[in-house]
Amino acid sequence: MSSPCNQFVVVVPAAGVGKRMQAQCPKQYLTIEQHTILEHTVFKLLSHPLITHVVIAISKGDEYFQDTALPLHPNISIVNGGAERVDSVLAGLLSINSQDFPWVMVHDAARPCVDLDDISALIEQTQKNNCGGLLAYPVRDTMKKAQSVSAQATSQVEKTIERENLWHALTPQLYKTNELISAITQALKDKITITDESSAIEYAGLHSLLVEGNGNNIKITRPDDLMLANFILSQQTKPVDLSADKTLIQLHKR
Q1: Please, is 94 exposed, middle or buried when counting C-beta atoms within 10 Å of its C-beta (0-12, 13-18, 19+)?
Q2: Across residues 234-252, what is the average pLDDT?
Q3: Which three-class secondary structure state does DSSP give residue 87?
Q4: What is the 3-state secondary structure (H, E, C) of 147-195?
Q5: How buried is residue 55: exposed, middle or buried, by Cβ count under 10 Å (0-12/13-18/19+)?
Q6: Per-residue DSSP letter, 235
Q7: The predicted structure's pLDDT at residue 146
Q8: Claim: this prediction has a pTM higher than 0.90
Q9: Domains of the chain with CATH codes
Q10: pLDDT (mean) for 214-219
């Protein structure tokens, strides 16, 4: 069994456009309390004592990133993202020195409400079991499967899905760096659809732990999610001080 890791890097894919938000800019650059969602997310991650670096994957034509407080931060690096989320994740993974960071987290840019205690629990369980895993929470509602995928607001029920043993997958997801790179690379080569890191690990025949996390760890996807995220952030007991690096922020805005 390998020795437990005491420092972690996080890959944050942020090259998407977020079409469902119906906004004039990519959703990660929408603001909550005068800071972008991406800033909230990244600074929340860096406030965890065991997270020492964040790699952000942005699109080549990104016109918004330079106007944030992120580019000058010493513990943040940037890579060019790809056409799909998985391509951006892989680009971030390939930029990491796996000897320095044998384990890596991946976290959605649009999940600024992640709880630091949940991240600690994920780290503790994966290191204790020497097995990668993800934050998730059990499905609470009755689940319905529609007859077909439809762009309409209504559809017909095909059947009810038993909710027992069903979980909502969240992020961060935490895996051994080289295993995750290998799993994603093979899945892409085989033209397998990868929706998250766990699905790549699953395709590779490896195990994942389900670590129960807080349901407040929402992904901002639709317009009403922004208001909910604003409320959750305002209620969290340990708000992240996005002005902690005031010197860097002021220099960047000159």
Answers
A1: middle
A2: 57
A3: helix
A4: CCCCCCCCCCEEEEECCCCCEEEEEEEEEEHHHHHHHHHHHHHCCCCCC
A5: buried
A6: H
A7: 87
A8: no
A9: 8-239 (3.90.550.10)
A10: 96
